[in-house]
Design a protein that fits this description.
The structure holds two protein chains of two kinds. In chain A, about 80% of the residues lie in helices and about 0% in strands. By secondary structure, chain A is mainly α. The radius of gyration of chain A is 12 Å and the shape is rod-shaped. Chain B is elongated, with a radius of gyration of 22 Å. Chain B is mainly alpha-helical. Helix content of chain B is about 50%, strand content about 5%. Classes of the chains: A mainly alpha, B mainly alpha. The interface between A and B is medium-sized, with 12 and 12 residues.
Chain lengths: ~30, ~140
């Protein structure tokens, strides 16, 4: 992320996106 | 003091600062992290502020560090500087070296394609330390 590379930004966003989705499913759907 | 010991101390201090930052910001509490991830519930944005704080330190450092010829407590840099004047390091051997000369990846376009297409030395996997027994394993084999 600190290198401001597109790949790092996309991978970090994907990581947090999947984590947020998981928390949403486990806390609000199931 | 030997540079090896200084490097160990630097790594130890870095780890302590990192852990202290996590402890002070409350990120050792799993409820805080889950609170950040739970956007549909009672959202807690403190983790975002911690990450922004880390980036405020790391982004200028990553701009400054590649301009140095080597680390402060090391004789030579182990990172390759990109041959193009991007001012960035390439952390792994360039793909061009791993593939061999004059081989362009099908999806490479523009500047990246020219970068890979430039003829360069072929790096054997044994030279890169990828294959074969490690130095420790070789020593053990010789001792037997």
């Amino acid at each position: 992320m600190a290198r401001l590379s597109r790949r790092s930004v996309v991978s970090t966003a994907t990581f947090f996106g999947v984590a947020m989705l998981t928390v949403f499913v486990t806390r609000h759907v199931l | 003091m030997a540079s090896g010991a200084l490097r160990v101390i630097a790594a130890l201090v870095s780890g302590l600062v990192f852990g202290l930052g996590l402890a002070v910001s409350g990120m050792m509490n799993p409820a805080k992290v889950i609170g950040f991830l739970d956007v549909a519930g009672d959202w807690d944005p403190t983790l975002a502020f911690v990450m922004i704080g880390a980036l405020l330190v790391a982004v200028p450092a990553y701009r400054f560090i590649p301009k140095r010829p080597r680390p402060v407590w090391k004789k030579a840099s182990t990172c390759r500087r990109s041959r193009q004047s991007t001012g960035r390091w390439s952390w792994a051997p360039p793909l061009r070296d791993r593939l061999g000369p004059r081989r362009v990846l099908p999806r490479a376009r523009g500047r990246r394609a020219r970068h890979w297409a430039r003829p360069g030395p072929r790096v054997r996997r044994s030279d890169a330390g990828g294959d074969g027994p490690s130095r420790v394993a070789k020593g053990l084999l010789e001792a037997l």
